[in-house]
Amino acid sequence: MFAEHAYADPELTTDPLTVLVRLLDAVVDRIADELEEAGRNISTISSQVFERRLRSERRNPELRYEALMIRIGEVQRLLARLRESSVSSSRMLGFLGSLDLMGGRDSARRHVRSLVADARALDDHSDFLAENLNFLLDASLGMIALEQNFVMKVFSIVAVVLMPPTLIAGIYGMNFRHMPELSHVWGYPWALILMLLSAILPYWFARRKGWL
How far, in Å, CA of 69 to CA of 55, rounded? Predict the structure, then answer.
């Protein structure tokens, strides 16, 4: 980036100090651009985590959450590298500003001080993005737990629905000699209807309570 600017404006390479300051300026600008891109990625991840339409789609939720966790990991690695670059640049600029290399060049000194302030602002911004990303990670784990709870709730209700018919079938399958229903003509249909009703009632109760 600096080379392109130097070819376009030869005055940027008139002396070593100007080259150094302009190189550091390009580094800080690059970090700012990458932090802006990371912020856009975090906004996209936030939309994917909290958008109702995506959460209402029950098809392959494990694949969606797997892709989401992978993307969070990629942004986390990017933020870690940016944080390292930002802190290193801040320390380097602070050390450069403390040295007596500027002589009487007030413009270069002001430029370095401006870069120091920009680098510290980028440090704060990277901390802010990291906190947001950690929040989204916790929210994603919470959504995964909610999905697992929903699946376990469905299994539990299915078990409750099938329990009474299984009990009725077990009672009439014992084949004791003295069972009046065995001699009735309508005993078999009556047992089927009883099992059907015993399955429908728990399901209706679960729907009424909003558990399904």
Answer: 15
How many other CB atoms are there within 10 angstroms of residue 106's CB atom? 9
- Please report the pLDDT score of residue 102 as a whole number: 60
Give the CA-trace dihedral at 90, 95, 101, 107, to 10 degrees: 30
**Which of 29-33, 163-167, 171-175 has the least mean pLDDT?**
171-175
| pLDDT tens-digit series, residues 79-129 | 999 988 888 888 888 888 777 666 556 777 788 888 888 988 998 899 899
CA dist., res. 99 & res. 21, Å (int): 13
Put residue 45 in one of left, alpha, beta given phi > 0 → left and psi -120 to 50 → alpha: alpha
Quote the tokens at residue 6. 């130097």
* 60, amino acid identity: N
CB 191, CB 172: distance < 8 Å: yes
